[in-house]
Design goal:
270 residues; seven-stranded mixed β-sheet; 1 helix; disordered N terminus; globular; Jelly Rolls; mainly beta; 16 strands
């Protein structure tokens, strides 16, 4: 399966190919079957050639069963849709482009990331959305997310690139998301004379999640204009790492032990 959102893996990580459903199952999300194991996306094989669904995205494309894109002048990439021209497939670039749309940005000679060049008609606002499905046997109660946001601050307008999430029983994009303020980013209004990519590493832990088996988790990165005027900076998303876990309920036996220990210490004090 040519799922080009998968990555080379750190020790202990699991490849997308190892947890994705059979190729014959169409229009389905990345399936989570293993808890406490990082799921990593790094876009090294992405060439900015667009989006198409399983079972076989073409070389250089991203799997639209996993990814949706909204807010482009040519329309949206729906989950399971095919978009391989125009705004959806601007190709590979080192940055410094003027045409809006989705790129495979080379943030260094050895690194490729999922990129966007916002313009007045593209990604203002707009979003990248990743969809996952809980096919484990456990309710997931904890979500850890980390990623790198590369920014090329080569213009004077200030733009945001913020993160949100939502759990839903439906496989369609939910109407609202929970914003995670600590991951919000706003680019500088004054352009950087060096015109070099800078990396901003983001991470958070979201406890008390209620993500039941057969439900869907949506992760969204949203951009929009903030201030200034003129052209807009370029953004690239990379090295997404997602780990989910289930915090076990405290058993009645363990609770009884805690109560007994507490009573013992109370009696000693008296």
């Amino acid at each position: 399966m040519k799922n080009l959102s998968r990555t080379h893996l750190a020790p202990g990580a699991i490849s997308i190919a190892g947890i994705v459903m059979a190729a014959s199952q169409m229009n389905a999300a990345v399936v989570i079957t293993a808890l406490d194991t990082p799921l990593v996306f790094d876009f090294q094989s992405f060439t900015g050639s667009g989006f198409s669904p399983n079972p076989d995205p073409s070389a250089g494309q991203l799997d639209s069963d996993n990814w949706s894109v909204t807010g482009l002048s040519d329309g949206d990439v729906a989950f399971g849709g095919t978009k391989t021209t125009g705004d959806f497939a601007r190709g590979t670039s080192d940055g410094g482009v003027a045409t809006g749309g989705v790129y495979a940005f080379k943030t260094s000679t050895t690194n490729t990331a999922l990129g966007i060049q916002p313009i007045a008609e593209d990604f203002t606002p707009g979003s990248f959305i990743l969809r996952l499905e809980n096919k484990s046997l456990s309710a997931i109660t904890n979500l850890s997310v980390s990623y790198d946001l590369f920014v090329l601050n080569n213009d004077d307008r200030s733009n945001s690139f913020n993160f949100g999430f939502q759990v839903s029983a439906s496989d369609t994009i939910p109407p609202s998301f929970n914003n995670v303020a600590e991951l919000n980013y706003t680019s500088e209004g004054a352009k950087d004379a060096s015109a070099a990519w800078t990396r901003n590493s983001k991470s958070t832990n979201i406890p008390f999640l209620s993500f039941e088996p057969d439900e869907f988790l949506f992760l969204r990165w949203t951009g929009d204009d903030v201030g200034g005027s003129g052209s807009r900076d370029e953004f690239a998303l990379d090295n997404i790492s997602i780990t989910v876990s289930a915090v076990p309920e405290i058993s009645s036996t363990f609770m009884g032990m805690i109560v007994c220990v507490g009573l013992f210490h109370r009696r000693r004090r008296h």
